[in-house]
Amino acid sequence: MLSVAGASLEVVERGQGRPLLFLHAGEGLAPERPWLDLLARRCRVIAPWHPGWGDSPLLDGMGVVDDLAYLYLDLAAELGLDDAVLVGVCFGGWVATEIMVRSTACFSRLVLVDPLGVKFSGRDERDITDMHALSRAEYLKLAWADPAKGEVDFTTLPDSELAGIVRSREAFALYGWKPYMHNPRLKRWLHRIDRPPCCCGAPKTGSSPRPMARTGAGRSPMPGSS
């Protein structure tokens, strides 16, 4: 556990080399899955569990994504990160974007994978699927190119792990319930990101629940987006 700005963070570290700060999706870090090991082949991967997920406690008074952005800027300063890559997936992509509109000093590259956080369509148009209203099967079909890879047999999990899943879902809803999974002011400030971003989607899914994946980097006002 690391102590940062009065918060305790559970952090997974793997690999050596250029630092890479990995911000996980709303479902959690899932360090047993292969992505961290793949990234660690070339980088020093630093992957915190967001407050409210894993063993990172949710702090009193911390309930908006702005809090996470400032917390991770403090973490980057505490670790002395320089020329680092910032990778954000789903909810973590929202947090990463909020970080970079505030300060890009520690990071030379931004990678967003199916990020939440920005709404591109009109006020009365839904471009972020209400994930909490979907059945598990419907969610997996939208969120995974191969839904079988996201399937979990909850009946086999111990009570402690099930309790952790419930806590993480509560935290996910706390940070993103209203406005639903986006910051209506964030789009205005994307031009402040002065590092080349890479926006990745999931083209094999029938209908991504996340806006940038569906609208594409071409609609993003971030300079040099690809």
Describe this protein's structure:
The structure is a single chain. The chain is of the alpha/beta class. It has helices at residues 35-40, 65-79, 91-102, 136-143, 159-176, 211-215; strands at residues 2-4, 7-9, 11-14, 18-23, 43-48, 84-89, 107-113, 197-200. Helix 2 (65-79) packs across helix 3 (91-102). It starts with a strand and ends in an 11-residue tail after the last helix.
Quick structural overview:
The protein is an alpha/beta fold and 226 residues long.
Helix amount? 25-40%
Q: What is the CA-atom radius of gyration, in angstroms?
A: 17 Å
End-to-end distance: 35 Å
Question: What is the count of DSSP helices, taking H or I runs of 4+ residues?
Answer: 6
- What is the number of E strands? 8
Mean pLDDT: 88
Largest sheet: 6 strands, mixed
Q: Strands of the biggest beta sheet: in what spatial order?
A: 3-5-4-6-7-8
3D shape? globular
SSE topology string: EEEEHEHEHEHHEH
Which regions contain 5 or more consecutive residues with pLDDT less than 50? 210-218
> Would you tell me the structural class of the helices and strands?
alpha/beta
> Which percent band covers the strand fraction?
15-25%
